[in-house]
Amino acid sequence: MAAKEEIQTRDDPVAATAEEDDEHDSKERVLQRYFLQEWKLLKSLLDDIVANGRVSDPSAVNKIRTILDKYQEQGQLLEPYLETIISPLMFIVRSKTVALGVVTDEILEIIKPLCIIIYSLVTVCGYKSVIKFFPHQVSELELAVSLLEKCHHATVVTSLRQESTGEMETKCVILLWLSILVLVPFDISSVDTSIASSGLVGGLEPSPLVLKILGFSKDYLSSAGPMRAIAGLLLSRLLTRPDMPKAFSSFIEWTHEILSSATNDVMDHFRLLGVVEALAAIFKVGSRKVLLDLVPVVWNDTSILVKSNTAVRSPLLRKFLVKLTQRTGLVCLPPRSPSWQYVGKSSSLGENVTDKHDVCNNERNADSFYSKESACSVQEGDMDVPEIIEEIIELLLSGLRDTDTVVRWSAAKGIGRITARLTSTLSDEVLSSVLELFSPGEGDGSWHGGCLALAELARRGLLLPISLPKVVPVIIKALHYDIRRGPHSVGSHVRDAAAYVCWAFGRSYFHSDMKNILEQLAPHLLTVACYDREVNCRRAAAAAFQENVGRQGSFPHGIEIVNTADYFSLSSRVNSYLNVAVNIVQYKEYLHPFVEELLCSKICHWDKGLRELAAEALSALVKYDTGYFASFVLERLIPCTLSTDLCMRHGATLAVGELVLALHQCDHLLSTDKQKSVAGIVPAIEKARLYRGKGGEIMRSAVSRFIECISLSHISLPQRIKQSLLGTLNENLRHPNAQIQNSAVEALKHFVPAYLVMVDDGNADSITSKYLDLLSDPNVAARRGSALALGVLPFKFLAAKWTVVISNLCRSCAIEDNPDDRNAEARVNAVRGLVSVCETLSSTRKHSQFLSVDDDMSLCLMIKREVMQTLFKALDDYSVDNRGDVGSWVREAAMDSLERCTYILCERESEGFPRKTTGIEYKEHPDNDIAERDQGHTLFDVSLATSLVGGFVKQAVEKIDKIRDIAATILGRILHNERIFVPCIPYREKLEEIVPNHPDLKWGVPTFSYPRLVQLLQFSCYSRFLISGLVISIGGLQDSLRKASITALLMYLQDTLADKHEGCLREHMLGDDLLWVLQQYRRCDRVIIPTLKTIEILFSKKILLNMEAKTLDFCVGVLDSLAIELKGSRDFSKLYAGISILGYVASVSDPINIQAFSQLLTFLGHRYPKIRKASADQVYLALLQNENLVAAGDKREKALEIISETCWEGDIEEAKHQRLQLYEMAGMEASKLLKTNREANKDNKKSVADENASYSSLVGSSGF
């Protein structure tokens, strides 16, 4: 048992040290160690591979790759499992290579899937973590070289499949294996068996084995794949061995030739990349003594190449050249630990916390640092720095200006590494050169590279505290770096890098050195954290602030701010501006910096949305210092409203309006001069003609919002300015831009009550009349704006002409007679304006002397008889234009308006009449009974309630998800409204059960809504409404909607809980309702075509064909409708559905089948060949299913023969001749057929003979 446990422990790397590690490690590390959730599945797949000695199931490789790819960003979670995964796989690779040899191709088929798995681990965890578990016996070197030779010379199989074929992964894994094997501590010539077998004696010349490795590696340096980097790694480890001087010299000569002869060829470019990358790797691991002699040659080639056009075009080449340059500089400078280097905090926060009790000791160390620096300065002055270093630093500084981030980042690290080996004097010169990158003439790339370099210097202790006063102002500028370029700006990467510098400051310096610096940085970091446009910059600044609070602890109110401005709260820009910033500004020391940031950078920002948000954010800060905003901020903003810069004047106009409103809400009264200045802003803008040009629309919206704010604030205005502002709003109402119209309506809503209601100058009637006249204006924009304007007028402006206003708005809700005048947005606004007028009139009647009791009743009756009926008609607005179903906008507005008008009527009725507290339950009551129960309900009766609920039910089962969701949600609110009871709703209890009072129901999901709502088909008062909407979904083009709706209908009809009689009754009601739809929507293809498709589907399910006596009535009604609908129709989908229905009816045994068969035969001579073919198919099926159509015997067989052998898609005359024979066989009079043909020819004499001659017919045949 103990042995078994030991084996299990050895197999599982986690179990081996679980008890010890779990006891000592932190909770987070233990969770990460066990975070490979798919370990059981992965282990089973690996065990199967190990047991078979190869990958037997190719899908297992894809499964393993899918699992591993999930951990791309958290590769360290896989590290505890690497040995268990890699060791057995590499053992198979080694053992199979030994057993099979490299002669056969079978070895590649075995190792390719294994190498795919191993290389997946390399991409996730990195090669350094993976190669630790590769076998590295000396005897395996030749084996690996032979295997690489086999892969290198194998024919590459090109594949267009998504899955990898394994060639690239195999080469990469073998190259990595060789990179660990060439480190054997023996002379490689002593390992090469080819020397012994050939009798050669090893010397300075490289052995054949080494030559093979060099040859393969040079070839792979020209590769465009990952083999290039791994080959460079292999060469760096091989050539820097002590026994490789000859090979190393030869390779350097070869690289010199490559670097000197760079061309524009693609393959030469890849080889150039590989050579430079290999040299950089060699200079990283090679001995300084050996490399020092190569510096002049390599540096000469590098300096020439970096200035060439090849480097200009290739960012990757420039990155490798910068790496090679910095490593060349490190070779020239001896390794040293400069005594002048700042020794700051430990990188571990835990160590810093444990040392906090010895703060005095830290401060003494920091104080003694300067004395050490002065003591060692004499010795450092004697340091001999090669002249080449100056050139290298110059190249790295130019790399900081590069256009690509990867090059700048590599150059910044090079600056830090080389500076660490310089004297303090020279390091100051480097710092001065870096600071020159922040000059105004430099581009954003220089600022970004400079920030990265400063961060590297700070992290390495090379940026001394004495230099911080000249660095911090530059970093503050970088935190706010934002340069406008056309319609956008650049600088987010600079601000991000500047926040990184501040983060590095917090980790590198003692509190005593950072105290004054933090006081400067804190406000700027917080303004960026709250007000930056980009979320990455906000989060970077917040992280820097948090790092400094945790390590320095001297930020004012740091802990409270860190809790407020966290990673998630800053993800939303609106939340950052209006909530996080407001919470921070409660600490007085941050108020003025925040206001300055908004005034200087955000009010004039190029992004229009950000300017609007900045104006709101500025007003949110008013409560902390009203005097400061009323005096200083307003005086600063008012002149900016006339700025020549569009962004500035737009933002300033919005900001002034928001500030005035915020000051009013804080009960701060502006002085007379200030009010006069504010009142003159809009006239001054108009006088300067700032509505013209591309910024005119933006300024119009801003001015409307400004007028709204001063109206809410009751700023004192002269009469002249009042008229001017009213004229401005009227102009904006006529503007075609919907956003400008909406902002003008909102402003008018507050402007009129504030400045025009209390003035008795007789302008009320003229203003109302003007808007009434605009309702019939030819200008569509004027109609849209006037409808909205009438909706926001106060009671005084409507009292005298309320009947005219309501009547005109009702007419505007209807679809225009002239097609050129039709506009869906105008009808939407008319519907919204109509209900707003009704609410205004009804809400002020209690405390108004303008309406008498009779007028009050007249208003309510007008709402019931005209307004409600108008809104019901708006529910039938299915207008379509090139934007799609624009009528849905009108229907959506109508549903909202119906709900509000219902509440008006029910509330008024509850006040004037005793209301009933129970719903009405009835089943097919006679009309006089309904009339009796309607007594006492003058305003809202059963008929109105039925139409209301039916209208919502119809919309709730149609094809648009949004409309269905809105309709069902509003119906639920009406049924369950606790404040206003809506009476007279038939079957209320059942409705409340179907539409429960739950706000989160997914009515837009068809599989949820249809099974519920289809239950209303059992109630005759709602069934016709519902079926008229349901057929649209069942017969529509959307497959998922069609399946959900027809499934719900079939489940309702085939409900096992209902008895047989109830099932028949449901089927009879459905048939009657479908006939009603066919009659109600005659010649309306929008409804008729889906209805015919619905009937076809139901017939295919044997529904509506077995209703005994009712079947005959239903089929007669359907045939009558088909005779009308199909006559002269060119719609293919309509014809197909009708012919299919005729086929089903002709197959039944009722007497009606002869009529259906007769109609079906007429389509055998149709002008469209496809229709003739479809008709022939249906005739054939009908004859097979119903023997009574043609006399049994030879005639029936002859008819079937004619149908099957005739080419119905061929000549139409031949088709008509064959049709005549079928007519005679069926015993029908030919005179009827000739009469039918003459009528058809008369109706379609202008039609084309070929079905493809009309493009619309071709499109229609597709179902569209």
What does this structure look like?
The chain is mainly alpha-helical. Among the domains are: 28-189 and 206-288, Leucine-rich Repeat Variant (Alpha Horseshoe), CATH 1.25.10; 464-588 and 597-602; 603-750. The chain is built from 65 helices and two strands. A two-stranded antiparallel sheet has the order 1-2.
Search tags:
1264 residues, 2 strands, Leucine-rich Repeat Variant, flat, chaperone, mainly alpha, 65 helices, TBCD_C
- Based on Cα principal axes, name the global outline: flat
Q: Within the largest sheet, what's the order of strands? A: 1-2
Top-tier CATH class of the domain at 28-189 and 206-288: Mainly Alpha
Tally of DSSP helical segments: 65
Indicate the percent of residues in helices: 55-70%
> Over all CA atoms, what is the radius of gyration?
43 Å
Output the structural class: mainly alpha
- CATH architecture group name of the domain at 28-189 and 206-288: Alpha Horseshoe
Biggest sheet architecture: 2 strands, antiparallel
Residue stretches low in confidence (pLDDT < 50, at least 5 long) are 1-24, 158-162, 352-379, 913-936, 1233-1264
Strand content: under 5%
**Average pLDDT for all residues:** 84
N- and C-termini, Cα separation: 74 Å
Find the count of extended strands (DSSP E, 2+ residues). 2
What is the CATH topology classification name of the domain at 28-189 and 206-288? Answer: Leucine-rich Repeat Variant
